Amino acid sequence: MSMSYSPPVAKFFFVLVFIALSGCAQKLNCSKLKNGKFYYYSFYARNIINIDRQDTLQIETESATGTILRSKIIWESDCDYKLYIGAMDPVQSSYKDSLISTIPFDCRVVFLSSDFYVCKVSAKTPYFDFNKRDTIYFQK
Questions:
Q1: Which residue range forms the structural domain that includes residue 80?
Q2: Measuring CA to CA, how many Å separate 91 from each of 16, 49, 114?
Q3: Which of 2, 117, 126, 132 is the most buried (most CB within 10 A)?
Q4: What was the pLDDT predicted at 46?
C-alpha cells in the first residue's frame, strides 16, 4: 500500500508563494501622469495621437490631420480617472459627439514603467460597450 506524503514544509512554501503573488501587488506611483506630454497609436486612425495633459484638461492632436480633441478629466485617485471625451471642445460636431462627451470613460492604470503606462478603459454608451487596454507612451 503506497501513500503519497506531502511534507508540511512544502505546503507552507506553496501557501507563502501564493500569498506573495496574489495579495502583495506593488502600489503604482501615478502622480506624474496628471501633467505632461504623452502619445499613443490610434487603433482607428492608424497613426500617432499626441496628448498634452494639464491636470483636468487633456488635449489630443492627431498627427496626420492636426485634428484636436479637448477632453475633461476627473481624477478619482493617482491611478484612476474618468475621461469625458470631447467635453471641452467649443463646438460638438454632431448629436452623437455631444452625447458621448457626457459619458464617463473609466480609466485605471494597471502598469507603469519609465517609458509608458498601460491603462484599462471601460464605458457603457447608448451606442456600444467599450472595454479596452491601451498603452500610452511618455514623450521625451
A1: 28-138
A2: 57, 20, 36
A3: 117
A4: 83
CA–CA gap between residue 25 and residue 83 (Å, rounded): 25
Q: How far apart are CA 115 and CA 87, in angstroms?
A: 28
**What whole-number distance in Å separates Cα of residue 87 and Cα of residue 67?**
15
Residue 20 has a pLDDT of 40
Residue 99 in any domain: the answer is yes
Please name the residue ranges forming H helices in the chain: 8-23, 95-100
| Grid coordinates belonging to 105 | 470613460
Query: Cell triple for residue 138?
Result: 511618455
What φ, ψ does residue 96 adopt, rounded to 5°?
Answer: -60, -45
Q: Write out residues in the chain with pLDDT < 50, as ranges.
A: 6, 9-25
Query: How many domains, the chain?
Result: 1
Q: Give the pLDDT of residue 118.
A: 97
**109 domain residue, yes or no:** yes
CATH number for the domain including 82? 2.40.128
Find where cell 487633456 sits. Answer: 58
Q: Is there a domain that residue 19 lies in? A: no
